[in-house]
Please model this.
Amino acid sequence: MALVVQKYGGTSMGSIERIRNVAQRVAKTFDEGNDVIVVVSAMSGETNKLVALCNEISELPNEREYDVLVSTGEQVSIALLAITLESMGYKAKSYCGFQIPIITDSACAKARIEEIGDQNIRADLKERTIVVVAGFQGIDRKGNITTLGRGGSDTSAVAVAAALKADVCEIYTDVDGIYTTDPRIVPEASKMEKISYDEMLEMASLGSKVLQIRSVEFAKKYGVVVHVRSSFNDNSGTLVTKEDADMETVLVSGISFNKDEAKISVVRVPDKPGIASKLFLPLSEANISVDMIIQNLSHEGFTDVTFTVPKGDFKKALKIVNETAGEMEAGKVISDENISKVSIIGVGMRSHSGIASKMFETLSKEGINIQMISTSEIKVSCVIDAKYTELAIRVLHAAFGLDSKQVAAE
Amino acid sequence: MALVVQKYGGTSMGSIERIRNVAQRVAKTFDEGNDVIVVVSAMSGETNKLVALCNEISELPNEREYDVLVSTGEQVSIALLAITLESMGYKAKSYCGFQIPIITDSACAKARIEEIGDQNIRADLKERTIVVVAGFQGIDRKGNITTLGRGGSDTSAVAVAAALKADVCEIYTDVDGIYTTDPRIVPEASKMEKISYDEMLEMASLGSKVLQIRSVEFAKKYGVVVHVRSSFNDNSGTLVTKEDADMETVLVSGISFNKDEAKISVVRVPDKPGIASKLFLPLSEANISVDMIIQNLSHEGFTDVTFTVPKGDFKKALKIVNETAGEMEAGKVISDENISKVSIIGVGMRSHSGIASKMFETLSKEGINIQMISTSEIKVSCVIDAKYTELAIRVLHAAFGLDSKQVAAE
Model:
């Protein structure tokens, strides 16, 4: 008997019929003798509907109240799934974030989990009750409802799996697993059997959209084995787990992209010590995460600084940067929302050279201009004009020999 | 400066535009120097939508989970109203039932308020924050979400007004106040300037649908002055308050009706001591409130028992009664959902005779058969065939001189 955490996303929970399918899958795992905790997202479309309602009122809604609003989507889902399981004759009990409790900090809309109570859930599992947990939401120490940001249900699932020391955390989604790149763009993309936490961190943070980055951080930190698989079939998916020797023989394991960032440049900044902190401190205080940063060489005492922020924070960031630029007596602020970031990822890069230059050459051959570059031990990212995104991915996928890669299990 | 509790129903909260109207009304009261607590219902149609989703899964859903589901409607409302007030520059803070807390018993879907914490709200009011409270919902002592039953937001509002010792509890709705009967049925119906708690209790329990009965019980118990008025204009409405001398000069102050009950008869019950308790105990254990009960004279050791239950509990009640009837070796169980109850109400009845017989005579003249009768000090109710409801109300309204009645304030 194992303790299995299963997480179902919005598409899997998208209708009463689909919720029935989820319930049957949960019941099957339970009937095999396992204890089951199910973590669910809002029904697909529901969160967007709530956000649209909110935007009718205000583009910058009060953040505490925004979380009160959007957390209702998951509450609907847990109730419907528990009702379905109960109607099938199983004992089931739903939990909102505050009932577990999932304690977070107070950073509304992007709260971080600090602590998870396991006593209530353990008592239920002991009585062979199926536990249904609302993903995405928590509560801070003052009793305010918080949410973890888009895709936060993955983090909820992995965090609950870590807190309860589950044997596996199965993330059910509408795809079969993690692919070498988006199969909608490259039909030759293939499913990976396993991927290391670090590679997955790069894939997720760069926009592969299958798993939220923080869930992978959690999984890595607590050694939770994550199994990403489809809720529409019984195929095994992709295991996200510790790095092993096999993984290092591959140069590039996957290609990811991100169209959800925007670029902001501050032109002619007086080049004095402390400008970077002056520029970025107000952004971090506003809880905006800056991704890539480039500061060019200084000319005549002035420099240009360019960086990217999530599109969701773009307006807020631009307002702040304009104020700061004014105070710093910088030239002007220019911005571009039509960019995308394309990245190649692989733990094999650590022991092979020339991979970055092969990427630049491949893009250049197609006439794609590289606007920003950033590298880490296991990835190289380039910011390019958004309109070239698909082309860039296709040529890189072919150049790094991924087109022919086929996983045995398929 | 006063402490004003305002409650807005689903119609008043029915769209973003209407929520803006509510916010403006709240702001006006606040700007006049008052402290304001706003209690809101779900946007009109939302609760029904959630119930419909639930019914797709099960006709008898798990009750704990049902409450988790339907309580989300009010949570959406408090967030949207607080966001609107904040966007207008006011300090506003929303409260779910568990955050206040509104402690209830554990009778899901019809929980009763046991205790209300006032510390959190008082702290906010002291800082001139507008407090926005989710109606309809509470939390039991084990941490389960509960709801108070349809119309429960009125009770939430009056209970919060009682707990915080508010000066007035304004119930905003889509009608101008309490009418002598439903103006859609009798165009000559007129608005009452004031009505006693006891009359209102009879009006509400008999289906006037303006105020939930338990809210009036609360108001009576704690002496909360309730002002029922329209959210669409500035007219003063109807005050629900202590009885006074004026009220007693009127024979009948209003006519109400209820189409939301169904009739169940158990035929040929062996007439032994204890049959009533045997029949009704299982219903009360299932939290079903039985309204009118008639037990006919016994013939040859057998009797017939007829009673009414809310239509919402009809299927559940019928199932229970069928089981009990089997155990009691009764003849059979027959039922009728096509009934309605028409009632005349007035504190003046206490000191005047002949009012019941005038009611029976009026109905009989129109050929309307009376199936059940029940009386109290201040009302007479008759169960009739549902199809005669409107006719009965019209002739009674005229017979008791209400057609001509016109309130000076109008």
Summary: The first strand of chain B starts at residue 3 and ends at 8. Chain B touches chain A at residues 16, 19-20, 50, 53-54, 56-58, 61-62, 64-66, 68-69, 71-72, 75-76, 78-80, 82-84, 86-87, 92-94, 96, 98-99, 120, 143, 145 (CB under 8 Å). Chain B has two domains: 3-174, 245-410.
